[in-house]
Amino acid sequence: MTSDQWVSTSVPYLRPRTLEQREAWAEQAASAGRRGTQRIVEAGEVTPSDLVAELLRLRSGEAAVVRRRVIYLDDTPIEMTDSYYPAAIARGSALTDPQPIRGGAVTLLASLGHLGRRVVEEVAARLPTEQERHVLTIDTGDPILMLTRVVFDSHDEPIQADVMIAPARAQRLRYEMVIG
């Protein structure tokens, strides 16, 4: 990994953690001798976009809870991440509070009885919007990667949908799977 490239792996963000463990991003960055932080920009109930409603299998106009964050590596913004949860399972929980959650959102969901069993991720490239350019401090012609992730429970119901935006120049995604 070069100093301007970050290798992303999803697994640490999909498993519940203990309340004493560091946040997954901070732990992953520290293991590479770096500093990973995040800023929660918004948390609360919203009417999601058509894309998110489809990912969460919500009916038209049905609410979701969102946690919008900007992810930093060594004080440089490297990703914008919006995590959505069906309001039916997240309403009234700490997911609606714009504060860090001990153990992380996945741990909170598990404590509420919603444990992820299957994950679907899709990656697409496109040019950034003006807001994405501003937040990620990238040029107009610099492409971004958009990763969408949906986490399903043991009943194959979606419990979380993430939309992550990152500059393509600084990302490399790595997928590891255990078969059998």
Automatic annotation (TrEMBL):
SUPFAM superfamilies: Chorismate lyase-like (SSF64288). Gene3D superfamilies: Chorismate lyase-like. This is UbiC transcription regulator-associated domain-containing protein. One of its GO terms (biological process) is negative regulation of DNA-templated transcription. It holds the Pfam family UTRA. GO terms for molecular function: DNA binding. Residues 31-172 form the UbiC transcription regulator-associated domain. InterPro entries: Bact_HTH_transcr_reg, Chorismate_lyase_/UTRA_dom_sf, UTRA. It comes from Acrocarpospora macrocephala.
